[in-house]
Structures are given as C-alpha cells and as structure tokens.
Fold this protein.
Amino acid sequence: MASADLGGRQATAAPASPYAIELKGISKAFGSVQANKDINIAIPRGTIHGIIGENGAGKSTLMSILYGFYRADSGQILVNGAPVTIPDSQSAIRAGIGMVFQHFKLAQNFTVLENVILGAEDGPMLNSSLAKARKILADLSREYELDVDPDALIEDLSVGHQQRVEILKALYRQAEILILDEPTGVLTPDEADHLFRILRGLRDQGKTIVLITHKLREIMETTDNVSVMRRGTMVATVKTAETSPEALAELMVGRKVLLEVVKNPAKAGNVVLSVKDLAVKDEHGVLRLKGVSFDIRAGEILGIAGVAGNGQSELLEALGGIAPASGLVVLNGAELPLAGPQANGKARRNAGIAHVPEDRQSLGLIMDFAAWENVGFGYHDDPRYQKNAWLMDNDALRADTAAKMATYDVRPPIPTLAAKSFSGGNQQKIVVAREMDRNPDLLLIGQPTRGVDIGAIEFIHKQIIALRDAGKAVLLVSVELDEIMSLSDRVLVMFDGQIMGERLPAQTDERELGMMMAGMIAK
Amino acid sequence: MTKLPTWADVGLVPLISLTLAALVSAGVLLAIGQSPMQALTVMVNGALGSSYAWGYTLYYATSFIFTGLAVTVAFHAGLFNIGGEGQAQLGGLGVALVCLALPWPHWSIALVAAMFGAALFGAAWAAIPAYLQAKRGSHIVITTIMFNYIAAALMIYLLVNVLRPDGQMDPASANFPSGAHLPQFQEIPILQGLFQRFGADGQPRLNAEGLPLYQQVPANVTFFIAILACVLVWVMLWHTRLGYAIRAFGKSEKAAVYAGISPLRIIMIAMLISGALAGLMAINNVMGQAERLVQNSASGAGFIGIAVALMGRNHPLGIFLAAVLFGFLFQGGAALGLETDIPIELRTVVQGLVILFTGALDQMVRMLMGMFFAKKGAT
Amino acid sequence: MDFATFLQISDTALRFATPLLLACLAGLFSERAGIFDIGLEGKMLMAAMSAGAVAAVTGSVWLGLFAAILGSLLFAAVHGLASITFRGNQLIAGVALNFVASGITVLIAESMFGQGGRTPPLEGAARFANIELPLAETLRAIPILGPFYAEVISGHTILVYVALALVPISWWVLFRTRFGLRLRAVGENPASVDTAGVSVVRLRFSAVIIAGVLCGLAGAYMSTGLQAGFGREMTAGRGYIALAALIFAKWRPWQALWATLLFGFLQALALRPDVVESMTRLAIPVPFLDALPYILTVIVLAGFVGKAIPPRAGGEPYVKER
C-alpha cells in the first residue's frame, strides 16, 4: 500500500501528544506593526481546524511562521508534542507540514510531474525521480480523488486542478499536517465541495488539516474546531458544533455586525446601458467573453455573480475601455466605439461611465503616487485641475483631494501621503471617492470590498446604494455571493464567458446560483 | 528594514554611493601602484584650479546635462534608454547638415536651426526602438544598444563616403562656416573678465592692437540652454498633463491603460523627447566646440548620461549637480592622462562604479544606512 | 562564391562563432535562472585581459585560461551580489559592470605592460595551438564532406571544440538533471522553488557562476585563441551579439548553436566585401556588413521571426510573499 509507505516515518514515531501542532506565545512584528501578539493554539491530530479572521488579522503571518517563511520574534512551536524550530520551508517540510498557498507556487510551463518532484527529487538524475513519482502520484490520486494528468502542463490546467497539484505536492512530501490558505477563492461551489470531500478523506486517514478562510459558511460546514483571530491576537478557539456564524462574526470584528444590507426597493427608470453580443478576446486570441447581452436601467444595481475567471473581468474591462471588444454597446442612446483609438478609459469617463476596478492596487491606483495624484488619476485632463492651456493646477487637485477625503472618511486625511501607505480599506475609499464623486450615469464596480475591513465594507455598500437611489445605474461584479445577493436588484450569473441566466435575489438562493456558476443550469 | 528619512534617501544615499565608488577607485589606484591622493590633487587642479580648467569642466557638464535628462525622461516612462550615445551621434549629423547648409548670417539664427536639426535627428533615431517596444514588445534596452552600434556604422559610412570633403584624409565633415560659431565663455561680455589672461608680472596681456587677451575655453552658450532644458523638463514632468501621464505610465502600464493613457502615445512621446534631448547635446560638442562633425563625436557622453541620471535621482536639479560632478571627473580624468601615468580610462571605471552603486547596489547602501539610523533611533 | 572560398569563410565563421557561442550559453544559464545578464560583454573583456596578461607573464596559456575564469567570476560575483543578494536592477548592474570592465582592463594592462593598454603579443605555449582532428588528411579525398572536415571542422584550438561540446552538455544539464529542473523553475517561478524548501539565492548564484565560467572561456578564446594578445575593447560588442543570439535561439541550447553560427558567418562575410559584392553584384559598404548582426537582431526582436518569450521571472528580484 502506498499510504503505509508514505506515512511510514510519522507512523513509527509514536505520538506523545494528542496535538499535531501547538503554538505557545508566538509574536511577530513588522516594523511598528504587531502582526501576531502572543498567539496560543493547540490543534488536535486528525481534525480539520479552521482559522478565521478579517483581512490583516494576522492569519497568513501565523501560517507563514509555521511554514518557515518568517521567523517569530518570540514563542515556541511544538509538532506532535516535540519542540521544533522552523527557520525555513525545508524544516517545515521535514516536520511534516505542507502548505497550499492562496496564490499557487507552480512553474507554469512545467508538467504536473515536474512540479510535484521539484525540490523532492530522488537523485541528481531526473528520469528515475520522474518514474517513481509517477507511480506514487497514481496511488495518491486513486486514494484521495485527486485526479490530474501527470504529463499535463500547468498552464493548460484549470485552477481547480492546479490546486490539486499543490495538494499532491504536499502529500508527495509526506505531509501529515496540511495548511490551506483561502483555498476556495478561485473555485466554483462545486469544486469547493469536491475540495472539502478530499480534505475530509485526508482527515479520516489521520492527517491534520488547517483551513484559513474568511468565509463563515465554509467554517461551519467543514471544520471540527475553529479559532478566531482579530488584530493579531487569537481571541477564541471553539468547537464548530457549539457556535454560530453570528457569534463568529462578532468575535472577528469585536462588535455586533449587521450581516444584512438595508435598502429600499429599486425604482428602476429608463435603460442607461444596453449591451448586445459583447465579446472579448485575450492577447492569445482566445475568446474570453462570448457574446453577452443585457440592459441596465437607471436606479438599479445589476449584480454579476460567478467564479473568478469566467469573463467578468473582461466584461468590466470592455465596458471601461481597457480591452478592445466587439458587439454593440449603447449608453444613453449613443453607441460607444468598442475598438480602436476611440475606445479608451478617458473616452468612457467623458461619456459618463465611472469604473472602480477589481484590482485597485494594480489598476485603480498608482501605489507610489501621493493620494492627491491618485485622485487625479484618469481625470488629469479635467479642466478643474488645469491652470491654463499648458500647466496643471496641482494646488486645486490637492484641495479637491482634501475635500474628498473628508467626505469619504479616508484615514489618515493626508493628501500628500503615498497610496501604498494607506490600508486596503482606505485605498478603496480613495478610488470610490474619485469615481463616485463624478456623479456618473453608470458605475462599473468590481470586487468593491475585496481586502477591505468590515467597517469600510459597510461604508462602501452604503455609497453604492446611495448612488442607485440617486437614479444612477450600477454594474456590480463580485465573487462574494453574499455581497451580490444583498446589494443587487437583479443578478446575472456568468460561466465560461457567457450569461447562464438572470435571477431576482428574493427568488433564488445560493444553491441555485452556485449550480449556475458551475455551468450546470442554463436559462 | 528601517525606513529612511526623506532627506537621507534623497541626499545622503547618492553621496554615500559616490563615496563608495571613490573608495573602490582609490583601491584600484593603489593596486596598480599609483597614489590616490596625488590623483585627486591633479584632478582638482585640472578640473577646477583655473578658469581654463572649469571652462572645460562646464563644457563637459553641458553635454552630460542633456544626456542625463534624456535618460531621465525615458526612465520616468519606465523605459531604460541606453541609446543616448547613438542618438547624440545622429544629433551631431543633424547639426552638421544644418550648419553646412547655409553661410549663416548670425550665430543665433544658426543656433535655433541647428537645435531643430539636432533634436529632430536624435528623436528620429530613438523613434524606431520606441515604436518596436510599443508595437512589437521588443525590449528597448536591447534595441537601443543595437542602435548604438548601427549608428556608429552609419556615421563611419557617412563621414568616409559622403560628408568628407575631397582631398581631406581624416573621416570628418568640412569645417562649419564662421556664421555658425557659437559664443564661448570668453567671448560673452559679462563672463569675459573671468577669462582674461595675465602675464607673470600680474599685468593683463594684450594683443598687437592693445586689446586684452582671453583664455580660450570650449564652454559656450549651450550651457545656458542646458540649464533652461533642466527647468523645462522639470515643469514638463511635474506640472503638465503629459508629465503626469508619463510618470503614471512609468509606474504602472496596466493602471495607465485603465486611466485612458495610451501606451503607444506615451512610449513614443517619451522616447522622442529623450532622443531629442540626447541629440541636443550635439549643439554643445559639434557646433560649440569641434565646429565640424567627427567620428565618435559623442565620445561616451551618451553613456555617462545613465550615471548622471541615476546619481541625480532622476530629478533635473540632481542631474544638474551630477552633470557638473561628472564634468569634473571627465576633465580631471583628462588631466590625469596628461600629467600622470594613470590612464584616462580611470574615469570609465569611476563612471561604472557610480552606476553600480547608485543604480544596482542602492539597496545595499540603504541597508547600511538603515542600520545606522536604527542604531541612532535605539539610543 | 566558389567552394574554396566557402570553406575559407566557414572556417573563419566557426572561429568567430566560438566566443559568441560560449557567451550565449553563459547567458542561457543565467537567464534561464531569471537573471538577465547584459554584462556578458564586460565579463568577456575582463577574461580576455586576464588571459592575455597572465599568459604573457607566465608563458602558459593554461594559467591564462585559469586567470580568465577567475577574472570573469569576480565580475559575476558582483553581478550576483547586486541582483540577487541586494535585489538591485539586473540591467543596470550589467551596464555598470561593462563600463568598469572597459576601463579597468586598460588600467591593469597599462600598469603591467605599459603598451597603451595592450598585452604583449603571445606566441608558442602562451597561445592555444590548433588541433588537427584524426583522419583529417585521409578523409580529404571524399568529395565536399572531406574538405569540409579537414578545412572547417579540423584545425581549431581546444576551446572551439569545448564550446561545441558544451551545447549537448548544456541541454542535458538543463533538461535531464535535478539541477537543471530547479534552475529552470527558479527562472519561471522562484516561489515554486522556495516553497519546496530549495534556496533561490543559492540556485541563482550557481547560474551566475556558471555564466561567469563560460564567459571566462569566451574571453580567454578572444585573447589566446582568436587573437594573440589582449587589446582595448577587443570584444567589440560580442557580448551584446551573444545576447541577441540568445533571444534568436529562444533560450535553447541547440538553437543557440545555430544562431551563433549564423552571426559568426555574418562577421566572417564582413571581412570579405569582395565576396559579398561578387555574389550580390552590389557594392555593399563594409560598415553595413559590420552592422548587419545588429540589424538582424533588431528584426528578430521585432518579432518578425517568431515570438521570443523570455523566462517568466526574468529580470525580477525574488521577494518572498505569501
């Protein structure tokens, strides 16, 4: 049996402790920021243990310490009751710890097999390593429902399959403890279910799973125990069966949270944007958006649900003037050029479209620019910011920035501070302030609350609804189903570059939308 | 890592880099059996010790301001233009064609026309790599290097086969007409006094007509145009929409596209400005000094622009200071070659070391300083 | 062009291609590991001077070769320090080292020999001797292939054959060994290597050191094989042509051989404008032939001969991130 062979080393050492991992008094600071403060946690062997917390709560730092990416400033790590030091990843692997990162660590033009053996080869020659790995991989695949073609190139695999390769990598290294960081962010609900089946199977074989996530539902459905982190500290560890999503949310934030968004019924007006057969090809000529059609009316929020990478980004980019497209797009009765020099972000802004992009750090902001320069980003041609035909009026732009920072509660309200010095939530508020303050006819907004703390989420949601209530059209793209369900007046589900159907939030549920997101129900 | 205070990052890091480069150079001199102190004395005397000396220092500095600005404008657009050398040579061709075209009635008219020619030819030579980068994704570092070599071959061909007057042996153009002669420092009334020559008795030396004699220096009116260029580049980068777009594009191409900034437009404009600035250098050396076009006219100034831009932290004020520093180095290095056994190539070594320490080992310098500031903060 | 001329030019082409090939393979190892190396030129120059100087002083070409490798390694180490340890800009580091090399080689040669920055002419055991391959004269009788073997393949110095042998060896190392797998992975996605518990820094340094050794061979060939002594700027842009050949070859060993042979052939043709003129019936200026490799490279870079995709992590210093 392959599994006996794999687990051999761990099985022979009779465990002296019921805990796979114990952390005692772990602290870690980056400069003046205390990322982890006196963390204590004990994870029983053979369980699935959830770690939940807001962005920036210190979950990832803690796991990086466990995997040897960072060294703790103080504290002790015990594996199977024995104290260990983990100065690098090699030591973590030797201690039986495997990690599946949020962003996969795979060489794209290598085969699955090459990625699996990388760093764990048998000898200086590749051929024998590859042959041996092929056999073990076949056994592992069979045992844990982890089917992947060993000879496929990574760049040809779906993200779900790439994740399996990451799990296989850890198992091939005989990991007894498997840490997964936000593993479902890129998966369909169906793929996520498959993943959780695999994880339960691993647990039943005696492995210990640590699941880091910010999704309460996954914690409730999958874990045996859950630990909650808040601002660098471990605030509670409870049995999952003895808690509730509301209680966990309160622990995460430190106060009662309204999980529901309050809004009045929509008063939809005339059609603002009409899209027909919109299609986008990527740089390799592959069709990413395969002819979608829809209308958005004034005073309504149209939500686009879907797993990341199913054409939503291309939709935003085509409408925002970033990617050339084909089809017909009519805004307020006028047709927009979709390709050529007239199809650009500036022209769209002039036409009345504002765009809060999905990725604020690489698209929405210039991180090295000061806040005031970022407030002019995309609007640097605006007459309000010009002194004369030749020169820009930087003072006017700075004054405008100060005003916007006050209105949108950006902290700290210092216009000359570089964008990179603000927290994720405040960066997003700068983008939202810039785009919404233009009073656009149509707002494109992608992942409005990704990486944003809960306080800022509430604020940004309120702004979106206020814009709708002012009679503007909003196109909302989000991979968070909760957000889509609570904000949208109508929901479109995208899968594989196409629209699978339209639903009203009141008349559907997450299960149905999930099936559509996996491409399983057509109109 | 400790974050450095802004003043340290802007002012101290280049100075420390420079000190490191100087120390390594001193080590090299010791290794080949020369005295660094003697070398420094000769350099200071040769580059600053007399009006003659700094007339040369400022002449070189003028060229380096242009090539430094050229590198900087491209750098702000995220482009590393190593092609300043070739662009400056082509700029020289533009100057020569303009100057030789007419018997110019006055230098000021000739200057305006020659500036146009220099900028046009320099920009044209930068245009092809720029277009290939923008449209075909060809790495501009490699293409501009290739264009330096192609420019050198082209200039050899033109000077030997086309521009060389009949009966002349050396590969060079004819001498420019006297109407194209730019006033040098000793010919400019308000500066003239500084260059007056005195005899051993301390009395002014006079010519046959009883007029005072002046020390001839190559520094010329182009120096003031270079200062003007610094100001204009500063205004362009930080106070115009174009400058905003160039800097935004340089920081993030993806984000720039989101903002409606056209990559093709910015790459082309930034490189055309960069090439034009490099080309404008030829006003100084070809029109202001040699007064004819010779082979390898830029003599490395295009490359020194890289060091000047890095040392000057890509800011026109910094570039001005760095250009004067390199003018000192260049003229001082020449003095070394004349007065000592130290080969003139020492300045190439120093140039390379400055690029190394300011451009590639800057993190090391920051780390060293960070340790210093951390210690200071702790006590 | 008659057959004898063709053989003659081919023979020269192989000589010219050898330093290009060695430098190109150096670039291959470095860039496959994610370190762009614009400093091939400087390392070659340093090596050429070291070889010329040491061979002249000791009279032994082998000591010269050893010195060449040391000289090149010194520069490789600085490049590694700047671009790996201190995560500096790889391109700027390369440019800087080229300038340092250009100046310091003259400084050293001048202070040692006082001959205007040259090293004294080498002869006898201070140069690599040409090797007659077995059966060269016997096989000469075979039409076409015989003379080709005797005139073009046979009769070069050992470094030419070393360079040719390094092509399959490089292929085997890169694609058939554990080291090669890790080296390629570190140029594609260093995080994949780092999370597997293998040191990115050590791998990248090994690649840079291999590049240093190969540039050492290339430089030694310049001053002790191709020519008899070091002269200032003697590499004359060959490092950049090698870089161009690497792009031409799309970062593959066998293609690197063909690319450098092509560029070597062009350089050989530039020495024979008469042949070019008789073939094309045009008086092509010599400067144009000199510039042809650079022009061809621009055409290749412009993507008119297939798209060249460099290693994905090339040019980027590796910073750990979660």
About this structure: The mean pLDDT of chain C is 91. Chain C is about 70% helix and 0% strand. Residues 3-129+143-237 of chain C form one domain.
